[in-house]
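Async update (no meeting this week)

Hi team, since we skipped the sync, here's where things stand on the single-chain job. The sequence we agreed to prioritize is pasted below, unchanged from the tracker. I ran it this morning and attached the output directly underneath so nobody has to dig for it. Comments welcome in thread, and please keep replies under the output.
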Amino acid sequence: MSPYYFYGFRLSRSSRGVVVAEFRINISNLSEGVHGYIFEAEPSKIGLDERFVSMVRIKVKLDKSLRQIRLQADISAEGTFVCDRCLNNFKWQIAKNYSMIYILGDRSTMDLKKEEEIQVISADTNCIDLDEDVRQYILLAVPQKLLCREECLGICPTCGVNRNNENCACDAQVTDSRWDTLKKLSQS
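Output:
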């Protein structure tokens, strides 16, 4: 396997004002075989919001054959999020990997695994831009329910104290009075 090539942070605009991809691999003169790349960029350069605080890193392995390029990428990022239960900020590491197959021309994809992503690119394509794929995989890795830790106790709905930091004297069982009639029916 060939050594990994390090491509560091690049400016997002060239001197002519043209947007330059942060994670771009030149495939125009790429020889057949396995090639490795390591990229890193600021989160804002690939369209991530201010929740993402550290550099986004991606380690890419390309396996080029005559008619296709198989890509395997390992992504790492870190974000600062607000816990849905206690409203405290917490840092969360994101580690995601994905595979993509780029087929040169219009070859049939019948022999490829169904779980892998497939993109058909023209034979004269010079570069593969990974920015949007990386951004989407990072955003999809963020859970819908953000918790600082699984056993987070959250905020007391009565007095508003953070129950992770201190105990409160409130009744732990808050009931909704609208259900009292139904509860009486089920008890009789």
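Quick observations from my side:
The radius of gyration is 24 Å.
Residues 1-19 have pLDDT under 50 and may be disordered.
Reply here if anything looks off.
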